[in-house]
Amino acid sequence: MRNLCLLGLAISLASPSVWAQTPTAPLPPKDVFVADLMKQMTEAEKIGQLRLISIATDMPRELIRKEIAAGHIGGTFNSVTRDENRPMQDAAMRSRLKIPMFFAYDVIHGHRTIFPISLGLAASWDMDAIAQSGRVSAQEASADGIDMTFAPMVDIARDPRWGRTSEGFGEDTYLVSRIADVMVKAYQGLSPALPGNIMASVKHFALYGAVEGGRDYNIVDMSPTRMFQDYLPPYHAAIKAGAGGVMVALNSINGVPATSNMWLMQDLLRKDWGFKGVAISDHGAIIELIKHGVAKDNREAAKLAIKAGIDMSMNDKAYGEELPGLLKSGEVPQSDLDNAVREVLGAKYDMGLFADPYLRIGKAEDDPADTNAENRLHRQEARDVARKSLVLLKNNNQTLPLKKQTRIALVGPLANSKVDMLGSWSGAGVPAQSVTVYEGLQKAMGQQGSVTYARGANISDDPKIAEYLNHINTGGIDVNNDPRPAQTMIDEAVKAAQHADVVVAVVGESRGMSHESSSRTSLDIPDSQRALISALKATGKPLVLVLMNGRPLSIEQEQAHADAVLETWFSGTEGGNAIADVLFGDYNPSGKLPITFPRSVGQIPSYYSHLSIGRPFTPGKPGNYTSQYFDAENSPLYPFGYGLSYTDFSLSPFTLSSKTLKPGGTLTASVTVKNTGKRDGETVVQLYLRDVTASMARPVKELKNFEKVMLKAGEQKVVRFTLSEDDLKFYNAQLKYAAEPGEFDVQIGLDSQNVQQNSFELL
Ligand code: NOJ
């Protein structure tokens, strides 16, 4: 975060306004300015401001421009260059009141330069690295004339069947909330009104990650305590960090769709949290109120949504077509319309667009000749962040790092896939610019060793899956299956393995498998690739699995076959180089899982911070009537917070500065972390708390703080965590947020499972 200001201002401030009457004179304060403008607006112009149109829809551009010039559109999304946006802003400048448009886009984990998917960013546990990805995204998007991103996506995900698990930052409330804060500040910088910064629109409000069965768009049914305790804080953190926008979720919450949910949108968001920005529906969500079964037609849907406080309607016709009649009949009072318009204009003011509508679009003569030019990318930053996101899950007998003089058999359908390296939601990223594992290894090794590549298997042999994956990717073919028989491909890979010193198998999911609408009933690696892994194991050669995936996978068998396992998510434009850095030990892996890896899909939900229960699992006699599955182990495959390094770290017994904590006071937990191995490296010291006895069951542990520490070989450092009453507060059964006196356990470890414990009492 250190360089936010400098980075923000690094982009040229010189883009003279053609709109403002006196460019140098500051505008009146927002409320005065907006109120004055609204006095001049007709009802049709007001309604127009509430329409957010997708450029990718079938409305021709010419018609869009005509509509803008007539004052009938407030903003668009899905255009990604200055010269696409400029004619639309020009059209707005021809409109009666010259109200500028804003241009939004899904800048989720990078823009032209793609960073690791959000789940991978979270795995870095490195707030500076995450901020870096956000800053670069903002700069690149701003330089392409984009004013707002539909991000950060901070939906807590505890059911990895949900394909959008990849888009969020994992299962943990504290970690996701910290990242929400960092991301909003990184996108918006000192102010979203400055060029180089863009406005953040946090999503999906609310609880979208808890869709029943992990099936996308399904209902959410959740107790209020769980909402407030676990799922809502990340959105709140983003809003407290100043997010100018909120995108409203597609799901219902306890029967009431978020899009028509007065409690959610009015009581919680506006009144309790004091949100003053713009609330945007998700794509077509207003009309979907009919399918939810709470509106009988578009008219009623529009009425419900505007009453709930949805300011902008994303890509559906409901507001444009229905609000005139609803206002005329008095079913929607003028004040509802005005409230929505005020927020839209306020957001435009905050984005700096009234001061200069061309703030980010700039002048035509300054447009880049090639928007995808290499010199517009931030490769070094992407490589740096990507290697921090990789998680070493297993490393028997120091299989890794590899020597560069090695003969490597590189196999797997993902080993040389440029498109998959980018992950989902990487719309402005160019696959041809991404570095595959094959390319990364070759480059790192030069003439020193050799890489023999054999595909070995298709992503899946099920033609329906390939068809599905190619269908959801509107940009082109995502999965290009090799037509050879599966056994021929395996034989070829086995032959390569037999002639190699080590096998590196890049396996997992294609990017479309972890995407919107891509929910799965299984967390397995597809059978085609499992058969490949078994055949490789049978060669007896050391086997390194490089996983690419956007959700935890159930890899109990595959990891047992492997000598080493590296989780790489979808690591972005520089993924192949970053993975090579780790495989060869040019970077010592330091990532930690931001989400639990279950042994099987049947263990879901498998998050670590579950509430205490009356009969917790106690190993012992079979059928001992404690909470377990009798047909599998109870523990996860890899716990939350887990990740290895090429060096070893030890933690000293930790001390608490006091055995009691007075309300209003603080207490310090101190622990010495030592690098006991032979390489320099980083680890994450994690602090968890447990409220032992309270008025209601509390989590067995909850992350409350962490520190990522860099230590040279042999070096040690004391890490101190300060605890205050605030860290002990929770929402009780009456939704009162308070700490209750009594005993608390403090647990400190390098993952969530392997911890040491001390306790204190809150007086
Ligand atoms: C629908 C998705 O749910 C949302 O996350 C995204 O921002 C919009 N489409 C716009 O692309």
Automatic annotation (TrEMBL):
EC numbers, comma separated: 3.2.1.21
A single cellular component GO annotation: periplasmic space
A biological process term (GO) from this entry: glucan catabolic process
Main location: periplasm
GO molecular function: beta-glucosidase activity
Coiled-coil intervals: none
Keyword annotations of the record: Glycosidase, Hydrolase, Periplasm, Signal
Substrates-to-products reaction catalysed: Hydrolysis of terminal, non-reducing beta-D-glucosyl residues with release of beta-D-glucose
Domain of life: Bacteria
Signal sequence range: 1-20
Compartment list: Periplasm
The family this protein is said to belong to: Belongs to the glycosyl hydrolase 3 family.
NCBIfam families assigned: PRK15098.1
Protein name per its UniProtKB record: Periplasmic beta-glucosidase
Organism: Pseudomonas helleri
Gene giving rise to this polypeptide: bglX
